[in-house]
C-alpha cells in the first residue's frame, strides 16, 4: 500500500490485498473485500471505495477523475457490496451498486451508474454517464440491455461474492500459518 499526499489506504481488518497489487492514496476496503494479483487501485485525485464482500480480480485497473471547475466533484469510484469484478477490467470514475458481476475485460467509464443486481458481460464497454438498470444483463461494445436476469442468475451474484470471501480467507489463513 502506498501513501499519496499524506493519505494512505484504509483497509478493514478482514479485507485482503495481494502483495503484487498496488493500492495508493484515498482507497477504502470494507469488511471481507479482496484485491487480487496485479490490480492497480489509484485513489490519487479522488476517492475509491469498495463495499463489503467485494472482490477485484487479477489485472484490473481502478481509477478516478479529478475535481475541476467543470466537474466540481470529479468522478470517484464507488463500488457497493457483494460485487465481483472479473479479470482485466477497467473501472474509471463510475458507481456500482450491490450484487453486480462485471465480466472479464469489461470497461466502465466516468459517470456511469450501475444499479443493483446487474450482470455485465465479458468485454462490454459501458460509455460515460450511462445508467444500467437493476435486474438486467448488459453486453456489447457499446453496451446494450440484453434481457432480464433469471432467478438463478440473481442468486449467483451473491454466491460469487461469497465464493471470493471464502477464497480470501484461505489466503489469509495460509499467510498466518506460514509466519
UniProtKB/TrEMBL annotation:
* InterPro entries documented for this protein: LbH_gamma_CA-like, Transf_Hexapept/Carb_Anhydrase, Trimer_LpxA-like_sf
The protein here is known as Gamma carbonic anhydrase family protein
Q: Give the species this sequence originates from.
A: Alteromonas sediminis
Amino acid at each position: 500500500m502506498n501513501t499519496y499526499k499524506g493519505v494512505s489506504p484504509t483497509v478493514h481488518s478482514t479485507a485482503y490485498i495481494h502483495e503484487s497489487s498496488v493500492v495508493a492514496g484515498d482507497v477504502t476496503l470494507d469488511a471481507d473485500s479482496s484485491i487480487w494479483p496485479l490490480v492497480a487501485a489509484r485513489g490519487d485525485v479522488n476517492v475509491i471505495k469498495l463495499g463489503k464482500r467485494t472482490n477485484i480480480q487479477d489485472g484490473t485497473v481502478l481509477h478516478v477523475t479529478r475535481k475541476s471547475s467543470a466537474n466540481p466533484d470529479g468522478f470517484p469510484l464507488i463500488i457497493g457490496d457483494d460485487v465481483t469484478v472479473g479479470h482485466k477490467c477497467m473501472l474509471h470514475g463510475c458507481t456500482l451498486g450491490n450484487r453486480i458481476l462485471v465480466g472479464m475485460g469489461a470497461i466502465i467509464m466516468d459517470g456511469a451508474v450501475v444499479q443493483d443486481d446487474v450482470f455485465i458481460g465479458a468485454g462490454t464497454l459501458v460509455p460515460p454517464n450511462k445508467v444500467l438498470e437493476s435486474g438486467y444483463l448488459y453486453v456489447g461494445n457499446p453496451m446494450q440491455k440484453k434481457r432480464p436476469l433469471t432467478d438463478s442468475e440473481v442468486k449467483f451474484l451473491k454466491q460469487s461474492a461469497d465464493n471470493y470471501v471464502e477464497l480470501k480467507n484461505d489466503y489469509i489463513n495460509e499467510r498466518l500459518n506460514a509466519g
